[in-house]
């Protein structure tokens, strides 16, 4: 299969893609990449490393942006306020537990690091807890994809490898299309706003 050979010959690019993707977004590609690792196409340890570091770096960047430009950005983008306020309420209520788990909370994750940059959380404390949480997150989602892939392979045999690669390719195409759609929609909204 051509896609299998592509991964075998240029697998390091998939780790770079996983790093960039998790720097920007989240778990779906990690599950699919874990699925491919179960088929022997990617090294799960390198995948955990790339996705953990990508997630860590992305959240550190948002924390820094929140710390240095947070108030100005909230004035410029007031619709962010509800997400930031929700994240700050979670932080106030659960503190360390929230910092360790915000990656797993759908709907709050996108604003959490930025919100924590606005809070009184010390930079070194966030860095330490963020690193630990990113490692746990990466292991969890790569393992989920790996075990799902392993189960598929046990049930479907060689068809599982083809299926996982097709799903990974379809996911990347769909995610890129959604990203382009959202970017175009944002541009249209900015043109309409005075």
Plain-language structure description:
- The chain is mainly alpha-helical and 194 residues long.
- It has one domain (2-192).
- The protein is 85% helix and 0% strand.
- It has eight helices and no strands.
- It has helices at 2-24, 28-38, 44-76, 81-94, 96-101, 109-118, 123-156, 159-192.
- Helix 1 runs parallel beside helix 3 (44-76).
- The longest helix has 34 residues, at 123-156.
- The radius of gyration is 19 Å and the shape is globular.
- The model has no long low-confidence stretch (mean pLDDT 83).
Rounded to the nearest angstrom, the radius of gyration is 19 Å
In the predicted model, the low-confidence regions spanning at least 5 consecutive residues are none
Shape: globular
Ends distance: 53 Å
Order of helices and strands: HHHHHHHH
> Helical content, roughly?
over 70%
Q: How many domain regions? A: 1
Major sheet details: none
Query: What kind of oligomer do you see?
Result: single chain
Q: Give the beta-strand count.
A: 0
């Amino acid at each position: 299969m051509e896609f299998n050979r592509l991964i075998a010959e240029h697998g390091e690019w998939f780790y770079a893609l996983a790093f960039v993707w998790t720097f920007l977004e989240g778990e779906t590609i990690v599950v699919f990449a874990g699925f491919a690792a179960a088929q022997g196409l990617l090294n799960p340890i390198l995948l955990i490393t790339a996705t953990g570091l990508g997630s860590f770096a992305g959240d550190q960047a948002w924390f820094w942006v929140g710390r240095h430009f947070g108030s100005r950005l909230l004035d410029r983008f007031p619709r962010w306020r509800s997400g930031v306020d929700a994240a700050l309420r979670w932080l106030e209520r659960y503190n360390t537990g929230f910092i360790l788990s915000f990656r797993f909370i759908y709907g709050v994750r996108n604003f959490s690091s930025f919100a924590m940059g606005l809070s009184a959380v010390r930079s070194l404390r966030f860095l330490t807890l963020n690193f630990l949480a990113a490692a746990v997150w990466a292991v969890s989602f790569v393992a989920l994809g790996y075990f799902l892939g392993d189960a598929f392979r046990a049930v479907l045999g060689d068809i599982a490898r083809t299926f996982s690669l097709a799903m990974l390719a379809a996911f990347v195409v769909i995610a890129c299309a959604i990203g382009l759609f959202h970017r175009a929609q944002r541009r249209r909204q900015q043109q309409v706003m005075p």
